[in-house]
Design goal:
The protein has 221 residues and is α/β, with parallel strands linked by helices. The protein contains 7 helices and 4 strands.
């Protein structure tokens, strides 16, 4: 994909932003990204009911809408089953929903909401800058193995290519001043000019935390 760390400052009217965001989420719900499960349209597994995809769409609208002025966009790999599959949000799991984000609702039947280790690491790392950062998955839907809802798999080349198209739309809506990558897939898609940190999975928590805090301090000091 290539590009720079600067994607332009947001100057559009509020209506334009909301219209673009609603259009993006509506189109994403209709999308088919390779063989991934589209949690914004489809329902199975531990979903609380047929309303669950709508809850996830509403969560995404509320999350991004509340950060329309956020200067930072961090791009991760793909939706995971413990995280975005049920929360609708990148590296932000149901267990982390709190009174601080009253518009965010759980969509699963889990009594406390699902918890994702990678989301826990990333949210803790960016906590001081929580409202200044939008997290987005390069592949926004859920790659899973053999239709099993409680599995993750690496996205295919085709899915990553489709994800790059969605990422361009997200960047057009948000117009972030700074863009960073979390993990190798996002780093390759964004290009060498965009700073990258390790993904927190598979023993990467310490490196991810250190890298994200360094980026935030540099960009938002």
């Amino acid at each position: 994909m290539g590009g720079s760390t600067h994607a332009g400052a947001g100057t559009g009217l509020t209506f334009s932003f909301e219209a673009k965001l609603q259009g993006l989420i509506g189109d994403l719900a209709d999308a088919r990204i390779g063989a991934t499960f589209n949690q914004y349209r489809e329902s199975d597994g531990d979903d609380a009911g047929p309303e669950s995809p709508g809850i996830r769409r509403a969560n995404l609208l509320a999350y991004v809408g509340a950060r329309r002025e956020a200067p930072v966009l961090l791009v991760a790999e793909a939706a995971g089953w413990r995280g975005a599959r049920y929360s609708g949000l990148c590296l932000f799991c149901e267990r982390q929903f709190s009174d601080a984000d009253p518009e965010l609702r759980r969509s699963s039947r889990h009594p406390r909401g699902w918890s994702e280790p990678s989301a826990t690491v990333v949210q803790a790392a960016i906590a001081p800058w929580h409202d200044s950062v939008v997290l987005w998955n390069l592949v926004p839907t859920h790659p899973r193995r053999d239709e099993n809802p409680h599995t993750n798999r690496p996205p295919t080349r085709e899915e990553l290519r489709h994800g790059e198209e969605w990422l361009r739309r997200v960047m057009d809506v948000l117009q972030p001043r700074h863009v960073g990558a979390i993990g190798n897939h996002a780093a390759r898609a964004l290009g060498p000019e965009v700073p990258a940190v390790r993904h927190p999975s598979h023993g990467g928590a310490v490196a991810t935390t250190r890298g994200l805090r360094e980026l935030m301090a540099r960009w938002l000091a």
